[in-house]
């Protein structure tokens, strides 16, 4: 409840303006306040938010937090167990594990956010056009979406990487190219149910043009599903990115990245287990963070969904 | 129904056509010479390169190449692979059997564990078991398959030597990869089952069935289960399609000789015919299973009328 009053207070300056424009401004702010209130009341969502915030902090301050250079090899000091100068030990080339895990968060954050953002941009554009115009536009756009949807994510991503080569940018693009159809489908189906709503009819009756109806009335009311999808799937994108590196087709092997670390650790199974346990923990906490935030966001945006 | 099937088949053809265009563009048109890495050092001899280009039809105009590509693909002729000079279908067939074995085992595990867990959680809502299952299924989503695979290897190969580390073709070596593949889906099936079952349990027709004195078992199996199972069937069908396309990670961890491992190795060797074979198979199976799932929908739920 305190959230609600705070949000209304936040809209204070608007109240000094003439009454008519102030009305919708307050209404919108309180709606977000309510969403935030519902989100923060959800324990798992808050835990998720803390995990994601930690990940971002580590990614930003990795150079300050890392005790060693993540690329620096020390061939006299290979495969040292955790403890001493190297808190989490060293790998087969004598590189500091802790530093490599900390730097690995950068790749995870960049690839996770960028690929989902790109997928959402394409997906929202296609889904909005298909959902609003229907008929021929809809069929053509949805068949194109079907084509990209038909590739299993990792297999499709590998095809793109064959063309573009390994690296961060190819990974981002390859994941986005095969993720956007889900966004389009989500948005389209949710637009189809919103399109016939009375307020859209009212807007059209008042003479609003197509652009305005899509941007101001339909999108805000059908975007909830997409936002929850995005938050939830940043985790999925990070897993996919690490999977590609694990298979040897992601970022180059010398880059400090969690999938790379696990691929290298695989050969020391049962002998040097610290090599895979710590990067695994980093991935699991990261993915769980985004999953909890996504679930919380879905419930907060639309309590009817669950 | 008949018209719907025909329309969906038409859509499927369009999608497959589009997928071949995407694949063709990626592997033939865009930069990167498939002959470049072929034949080791000898390939740098221009005469040999020319001979190889001629042999694989790489000198034909692109539309001709595309036509040949689709024609061969439609006839199931994937050509010879680049490294062993054997027909791709012959190489992939035994691997496909291995992958199918793995995928079917995984789906059976999904059905048994997922359905049971969801059922228990929904029937005994808020009980200890429900809380435990909800907690485990929520956590499972955060565990990528390579982490699950390595944890299972550590637990059941290193600590308790029950299973071999690397597959040796026996049933025993099937267990760990199958579980690695199944755990995430089993968790999602359990969540789905719990959610829909709770909804169905609240439905009026269930209340009616109980009120008119039907035995609990009849209510559970004839009314509740049959109606809760529909989203699960959808999910499992699509998931099975993905698994058949190659469980890349699982096969890589356990060195399982399936088409997923073949794809990863082919990428490293730039062995295009194998890549094309695995990718087009994966796409075709996925699209076909999607169609089957949609049709199954109508069989399972007569309220859905396909038109």
TrEMBL record, chain A:
Subcellular location: Cell membrane
Record has Transmembrane as a keyword: yes
Family statement drawn from the similarity comment of this UniProt entry: Belongs to the binding-protein-dependent transport system permease family.
Pfam families cross-referenced by the UniProt entry: BPD_transp_1, OppC_N
Protein name, as recorded: Peptide ABC transporter permease
Ranges annotated as spanning the membrane: 44-65, 107-132, 144-164, 170-187, 218-240, 276-297
Keyword tags: Cell membrane, Membrane, Transmembrane, Transmembrane helix, Transport
UniProt membrane topology term: Multi-pass membrane protein
Domain ABC transmembrane type-1 residues, every copy: 105-294
PANTHER family documented for this protein: D,D-DIPEPTIDE TRANSPORT SYSTEM PERMEASE PROTEIN DDPC-RELATED, OLIGOPEPTIDE TRANSPORT SYSTEM PERMEASE PROTEIN APPC
From TrEMBL, chain B:
SUPFAM superfamilies cross-referenced by the UniProt entry: MetI-like (SSF161098)
Location in or out of the cell: Cell membrane
Native organism: Streptomyces cirratus
Record key words, sorted: Cell membrane, Membrane, Transmembrane, Transmembrane helix, Transport
Parts of the chain that traverse the membrane: 12-30, 102-124, 131-153, 173-193, 232-254, 274-300
Membrane-topology descriptor: Multi-pass membrane protein
ABC transmembrane type-1 domain span: 96-297
Lineage: Bacteria, Bacillati, Actinomycetota, Actinomycetes, Kitasatosporales
Superkingdom assignment: Bacteria
Predominant place of localization: membrane
Matching CDD domains: TM_PBP2
Name of the protein in its database record: Dipeptide-transport integral membrane protein ABC transporter DppB
Family classification: Belongs to the binding-protein-dependent transport system permease family.
């Amino acid at each position: 409840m305190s959230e609600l009053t705070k949000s209304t207070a936040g809209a204070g300056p608007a109240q000094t303006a003439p009454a008519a424009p102030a009305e919708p401004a307050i209404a919108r702010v309180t709606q977000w306040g309510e969403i935030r209130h519902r989100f923060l009341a959800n324990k798992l969502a808050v835990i998720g938010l803390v995990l994601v915030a930690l990940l971002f902090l580590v990614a930003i301050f990795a150079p300050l937090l890392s005790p060693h250079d993540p690329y620096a090899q020390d061939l006299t000091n290979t495969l040292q167990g955790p403890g001493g100068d190297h808190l989490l030990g060293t790998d087969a080339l004598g590189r500091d594990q802790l530093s490599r895990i900390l730097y690995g968060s950068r790749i995870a954050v960049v690839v996770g956010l960028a690929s989902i953002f790109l997928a959402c941009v394409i997906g929202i554009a296609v889904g909005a056009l298909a959902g609003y115009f229907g008929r021929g536009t809809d069929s053509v756009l949805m068949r194109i979406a079907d084509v990209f949807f038909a590739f299993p994510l990792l297999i499709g991503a590998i095809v793109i990487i064959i063309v573009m080569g390994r690296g961060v940018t190819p990974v981002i693009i390859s994941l986005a190219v095969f993720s956007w159809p889900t966004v389009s489908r989500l948005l389209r189906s949710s637009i189809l149910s919103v399109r016939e709503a009375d307020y859209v009819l009212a807007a059209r009756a008042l003479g609003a043009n197509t652009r305005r109806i899509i941007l101001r009335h339909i999108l805000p009311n059908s975007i909830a599903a997409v936002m929850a999808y995005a938050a939830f799937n940043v985790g999925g994108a990070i897993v996919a990115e690490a999977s590609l590196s694990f298979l040897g087709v992601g970022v180059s092997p010398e880059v400090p990245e969690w999938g790379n670390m696990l691929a290298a650790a695989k050969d020391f199974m049962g002998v040097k287990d610290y090599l895979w346990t710590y990067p695994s923990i980093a991935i699991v906490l990261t993915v769980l963070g985004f999953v909890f935030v996504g679930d919380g966001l879905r419930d907060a945006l639309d309590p009817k969904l669950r | 129904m008949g018209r719907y099937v025909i329309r969906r088949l038409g859509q499927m053809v369009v999608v497959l056509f589009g997928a071949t265009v995407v694949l063709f563009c990626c592997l033939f048109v865009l930069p990167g010479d498939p002959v470049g890495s072929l034949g080791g050092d000898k390939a740098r001899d221009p005469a040999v390169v020319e001979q190889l280009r001629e042999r694989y039809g790489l000198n034909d105009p692109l539309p001709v190449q595309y036509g040949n590509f689709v024609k061969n693909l439609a006839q199931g002729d994937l050509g010879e692979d680049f490294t062993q000079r054997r027909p791709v279908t012959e190489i992939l067939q035994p691997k496909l059997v291995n992958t199918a074995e793995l995928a079917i085992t995984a789906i059976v595990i999904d059905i048994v564990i997922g359905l049971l867990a969801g059922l228990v959680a929904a029937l005994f809502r808020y009980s200890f078991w429900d809380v435990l299952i909800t907690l485990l299924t929520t956590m499972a989503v955060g565990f990528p398959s390579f982490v699950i695979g390595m944890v299972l290897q550590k637990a059941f190969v290193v600590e308790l030597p029950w299973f071999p580390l690397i597959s040796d073709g026996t049933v025993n070596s099937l267990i760990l990869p199958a579980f690695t593949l199944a755990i995430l889906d089993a968790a999602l099936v359990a969540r789905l089952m719990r959610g829909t079952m709770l909804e169905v349990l609240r439905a009026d027709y269930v209340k009616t069935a109980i009120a008119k004195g039907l035995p609990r078992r009849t209510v559970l199996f004839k009314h509740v289960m049959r109606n809760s199972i529909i989203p699960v069937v959808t999910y499992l069908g699509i998931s099975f399609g993905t698994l058949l396309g190659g469980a890349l990670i699982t096969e890589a961890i356990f060195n399982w000789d399936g088409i997923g491992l073949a794809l990863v190795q082919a990428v490293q060797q730039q062995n295009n015919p194998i890549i094309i074979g695995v990718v087009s198979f994966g796409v075709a199976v996925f699209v076909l299973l999607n169609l089957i799932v949609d049709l199954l929908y109508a069989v399972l739920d007569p309220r859905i009328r396909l038109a």
